[in-house]
């Protein structure tokens, strides 16, 4: 097995990285290995100057800060792995610094837009698809979960009595998130009627099913959300529902630590962006409403 093949196994089975992360890291590292080959260096010679030269070339070619940050993260994980394998005498990864990120504020539906989207009844046709769409949208907003997390849910992950759903997030980390009565009603309509229309031998225990009865795919789930929001006259994307759930919780008085656990963020830094959204909205309201603004 090649070194990248072994590293893929390490990322997937030992570190529990998502398929998306694994693909991104491996693409970056293929580019790094090509750079080493072009410059006449062996893998065992990999050090900080070589990596910086490679990153500098990418920067000159127009790579964004987020791309460069991902490349640094990929190299850090790779050099740590190579050092553990004995390919590198020392690990240069900790001496690599990622460029400072200019994180854009997330797109958030206001409370009225969210209400319009969630109160909309899909009248585009009969059958299981409109029922599934509504359940998907309700659960994404109610639980603030990612689309991939939703598609991975099994029926047993839903606890209607407690009003919670068990979610496996990034890094195979498990969390339990609450869901409200409207989402539970939409899920009940899906489970007791529409889902049975799609059941096949391929269905297994998947909570949401696609047209052929297999587990609902991420692409189709995203299409469900887009279709439902368009029909409701709301301009938004699937991940906006997660952003909106977090922001509305903060606006309603939830503390940052609670929202962090709700979203499954490993670091509070990832959650703090939602406080900026709330402050921006407060500032806009202040400017509009305060007599001495």
Automatic annotation (TrEMBL):
Gene Ontology terms: biological process: cell division; chromosome segregation; DNA transposition
Alphabetical list of Pfam families matching this protein: Phage_int_SAM_1 (PF02899), Phage_integrase (PF00589)
One GO cellular component term: cytoplasm
Active site: 146, 170, 239, 242, 265, 274
Segments forming domain Tyr recombinase: 104-287
Domain (Core-binding (CB)): residue spans on this chain: 1-83
GO molecular function term, any single one: DNA binding
Compartment(s): Cytoplasm
Region Disordered, residue ranges: 86-105
Keywords attached to this entry: Cell cycle, Cell division, Chromosome partition, Cytoplasm, DNA integration, DNA recombination, DNA-binding
Entries under HAMAP family matching the protein: Recomb_XerC_XerD
Family (UniProt): Belongs to the 'phage' integrase family. XerC subfamily.
Its job: Site-specific tyrosine recombinase, which acts by catalyzing the cutting and rejoining of the recombining DNA molecules. The XerC-XerD complex is essential to convert dimers of the bacterial chromosome into monomers to permit their segregation at cell division. It also contributes to the segregational stability of plasmids.
Subunit structure: Forms a cyclic heterotetrameric complex composed of two molecules of XerC and two molecules of XerD.
UniProt name for this protein: Tyrosine recombinase XerC
Organism whose genome encodes this protein: Nocardiopsis kunsanensis
Taxonomy of the source species: Bacteria, Bacillati, Actinomycetota, Actinomycetes, Streptosporangiales
Gene it is expressed from: xerC
């Amino acid at each position: 097995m090649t070194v990248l093949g072994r590293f893929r196994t390490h990322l997937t089975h030992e570190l529990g990285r998502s398929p998306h992360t694994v693909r991104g890291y491996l693409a970056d590292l293929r580019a790094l290995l090509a750079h080493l080959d072009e410059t006449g260096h062996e893998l065992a010679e990999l050090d900080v100057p070589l990596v910086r030269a490679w990153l500098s070339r990418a920067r000159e070619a127009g790579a964004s800060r987020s791309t460069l940050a991902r490349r640094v993260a990929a190299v850090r994980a790779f050099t740590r792995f190579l050092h553990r394998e004995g390919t590198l005498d020392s690990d240069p990864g900790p001496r690599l610094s990622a460029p400072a990120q200019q994180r854009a504020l997330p797109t958030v539906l206001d409370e009225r837009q969210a209400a319009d989207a969630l109160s909309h009844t899909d009248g585009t046709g009969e059958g299981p698809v409109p029922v599934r769409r509504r359940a998907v949208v309700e659960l994404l907003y109610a639980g603030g979960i990612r689309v991939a997390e939703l598609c991975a849910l099994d029926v047993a992950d839903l606890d209607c009595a407690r009003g919670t759903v068990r979610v496996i997030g990034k890094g195979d980390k498990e969390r339990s998130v609450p869901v409200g009565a409207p989402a539970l009603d939409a899920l009940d309509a899906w489970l007791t009627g529409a889902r049975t229309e799609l059941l096949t031998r391929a269905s297994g225990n998947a909570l949401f099913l696609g047209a052929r009865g297999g587990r609902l795919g991420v692409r189709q789930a995203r299409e469900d959300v887009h279709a439902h929001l368009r029909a409701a006259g709301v301009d938004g994307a699937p991940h906006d529902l997660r952003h909106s759930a977090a922001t509305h919780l903060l606006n309603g008085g939830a503390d940052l630590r609670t929202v962090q656990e709700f979203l499954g963020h490993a670091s509070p830094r990832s959650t703090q962006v939602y406080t900026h959204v709330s402050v921006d909205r407060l500032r806009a309201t202040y400017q509009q409403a305060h007599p001495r603004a």
